[in-house]
Design a protein that fits this description.
Elements lengths: L7 H31 L8 E3 L3 H12 L7 E2 L2 E2 L9 H4 L2 H9 L1 H5 L13 H4 L3 H12 L1 E3 L15 H10 L2 H6 L20
Antiparallel strand pairs: 1-4, 2-3
């Protein structure tokens, strides 16, 4: 008995599938080769830290207390709770210290259970020295301006953001709020020209 070969449509479909796989492989090798030789990182780190001795002490307490079981900080930990990388760029030292002393007052609601104790009052009952070093540690977790972890957007103006604000922001918003990009971006000084 003679074996039946592939039909013409099957050959075309098989050829297209092989071409697609071959193209994907060549594209992947090309992109990896470019990435390796260009020196560019695939995922650039946007958070940074330069810890003081007090900040290092707070970092140790953060790990010893098991905070990294729920929170990510210094690119370690889990995302079960709020990620703390860059929190020092979003919140002031005073805010962080007040939050650690009374988290539920800051949130104005009950917070998640922490360890054996119920609610965030577990953190508030830590010794004053621990609260201070934790606040210093958190305040030193900075982020690059414009990154997702930072409070402020990229420096300068964005035509896209300006157009979207102009088109969609209600007039009341414009008088009630200010553009946070102005906090870091100095306004140009008008140049006066002498009248002839």
């Amino acid at each position: 008995m003679k074996k039946a070969g592939l039909k013409r449509g099957e050959k075309v479909l098989f050829g297209v599938a092989i071409s697609f796989v071959l193209f994907a492989f060549v594209a992947f090798v090309g992109m990896e080769n470019y990435r390796i030789h260009s020196g560019k990182k695939m995922y650039a780190a946007t958070s940074h830290y330069d810890f003081s001795p007090e900040g290092l002490s707070g970092s140790s307490r953060f790990r010893d207390l098991g905070c990294s079981n729920c929170h990510r900080a210094v690119r370690n930990g889990t995302n079960n709770g709020v990620s703390l990388d860059g929190v020092g760029s979003r919140r002031s030292f005073g805010y962080l210290e007040a939050f650690l002393r009374d988290p539920e007052a800051t949130y104005r609601t009950h917070t998640m259970e922490h360890g054996i104790a119920k609610g965030a009052d577990y953190v508030a009952r830590l010794p004053e020295r621990d609260l201070h070093s934790l606040a210093v540690f958190l305040s030193e977790l900075k982020a690059v301006q414009g990154s997702p972890d930072a409070r402020l957007p990229m420096e300068g103006h964005s035509g896209f953001i300006d157009k979207m604000t102009e088109a969609w922001a209600p007039p009341a918003w414009k008088s009630q709020y200010h553009d946070i990009r102005q906090e870091r971006t100095p306004q140009p000084t008008p140049q006066l020209t002498p009248v002839p």
